[in-house]
Amino acid sequence: MLPFVGRNYGKLNNKNVLVIAESHYFPPKSTIHLEAEKWYESNLNNLTEEEIYYIDTRKILETEWNTVSDVIFKEINKTLQPFINDSELRAMNYVSFMNCFQRPGKTGESISQSCNSIDVEKSYKTVSFVIKILKPEIVLFYSKFAWDNVGWKIANDEEFKNVKFEFSCHPATGGRYWHKKEYKHNANKIINFLNKELRK
Question: What CA–CA distance (Å, rounded) separates 9 from 147?
């Protein structure tokens, strides 16, 4: 679950940009993640090889993105692509990426269906730690749920007062919200923010 750090991190108009989505998912038959306490007390030795693959952020970001669940990476990439000069290279290579919640969601469900106070606490600590290490100037939450439960608290932390934050809905909402012009937290919200911050 270590963050993906693109090989051109820091070169998105000379800015360090951290992208934060929602959560990983596990294979349908997995159960270890269904109880928060059990999950946070476990380690890699308690997981199958398949489960480890499902939460290997760095490997997933380097795949071909040809599964249904990979639509999120394609959509995030589209919002970033206009700000790089190399059309042959994924824009995600210019940013770092992680999921906010540190427990996988149940297959087919948003982590919002099972998220509890333990998840919020662990996520707050983990995301804050990653920001301290990667030192982004811009942090983009591509999940309103992650923003409402974790992001806004971090954005209001005095330690990160010089970091600029923005959020949108989750790209997987598709036409319901992500591509809906009338919805104020859609894809264009992120694009407009980046136009303002990266076209200076």
Answer: 23
Report pLDDT for 200.
62
User: Alpha-carbon distance 136 to 112, whole Å?
Assistant: 26
Which phi and psi angles does 163 have, rounded to 5°? -95, 140
Contacts of 25 (CB under 8 A, 6+ apart): 54, 69, 104, 105, 106, 107
Question: CB within 8 A of 79, min separation 6: which ones?
Answer: 187, 190, 191, 194
When pLDDT is averaged across residues 15-44 and rounded to a whole number, the result is 95
- In this predicted structure, the answer to whether residue 107 has a pLDDT above a threshold of 90 is no
CA-nearest of 147, 54, 148 to 104 is: 54
How would you classify the pairing of strands 96-99 and 17-21?
A: parallel
DSSP state at residue 41:
T
Token output for 99: 């999921």
Phi then psi for 2, rounded to 5 degrees? -60, 145
Question: Exposed, middle or buried, 158 (CB in 10 Å: 0-12/13-18/19+)?
Answer: exposed
